[in-house]
Amino acid sequence: MAKKYTFDFKKQVIEHYFKSNDGYGLTAWHFQVPVGTVESWVKLYKRKGIDGLKPITKPRCFSPEFKYKVVRYFINNHLSQNQAALAFDIHFGCVVHWFKIYQKYSKAGFSMTLNPPQGKADKKMAQKVKKNSEKTKEELLEMVSDLEVEVAYLKKLDALLRQKRLEKKKSIK
Questions:
Q1: Is 49 left (phi over 0), alpha (psi -120 to 50) or beta?
Q2: What band does 89 get if pLDDT is binned at 50, 70 and 90?
Q3: What's the CA dihedral at 39, 40, 46, 52 to 10 degrees?
Q4: What whole-number percentage of the chain has pLDDT above 70?
Q5: pLDDT tens-digit profile of 1-32?
Q6: In this structure, what DSSP letter does residue 20 have?
Q7: 133-156: string of b/e by CB count within 10 Å (b at 16+)?
Q8: Do 96 and 123 sit in the same domain of this protein?
């Protein structure tokens, strides 16, 4: 589980970052936190000010359309989860979770109820699949478009992985 940091600690890290010339790496080393954490706090501070570092006290609810929009933006623009989260002012964990849902169930997954009791998820998905046969032509075309984007993403990922393996083999020789 991720370590929770207090607001005062985050503020101290941010102040050190801006007052010194240490950069992300040395600031992270000085406070014994991951570099990515310091980087995300700094970006959050630049974007939202000191309030951006405060913990969210009230849970936010997002519509299925918004979740879908975030995932499509993440995929189409080839962004990191942090970059997509910053673009929509949400926690990066939301992007991770929503992307997994999208991979497993496509767009229909966002309309499913959250945290159903075990065993009922498969029944709900079966009902969703059954409803797919009743969809309009427009909805089916949108689904095809979504799947084409997903296939393109997976092909690109596969090509990048192959390229990395080739580069690794070449560097070993």
A1: left
A2: confident
A3: -140
A4: 83
A5: 467 889 899 999 999 999 998 899 999 999 99
A6: S
A7: eeeeeeeeeeeeebeeeeeeeeee
A8: yes
Over its C-alpha atoms, the chain yields an Rg (Å, rounded) of 21
Q: Indicate the pTM of the whole model.
A: 0.47
Cα dist from 63 to 69, 83, 141, whole Å: 10, 20, 22
* Same domain, yes or no: 88 and 46: no
Cβ atoms 96, 81 nearer than 8 A:
yes
Give the pLDDT of residue 91: 81
Q: Is residue 116 part of a domain?
A: yes
Report residue 78: phi and psi, to 5°.
50, 50
Indicate if 36 and 88 belong to the same structural domain.
no
Name the pLDDT band for 67 (thresholds 50, 70, 90): very high
Diameter of the chain measured on Cα atoms:
62
Domain count within the chain: 2
- State which residues form the domain around 150: 64-172
In single-letter form, the type of residue at position 23 comes to: G
Distance CA 170, CA 107 (A): 40
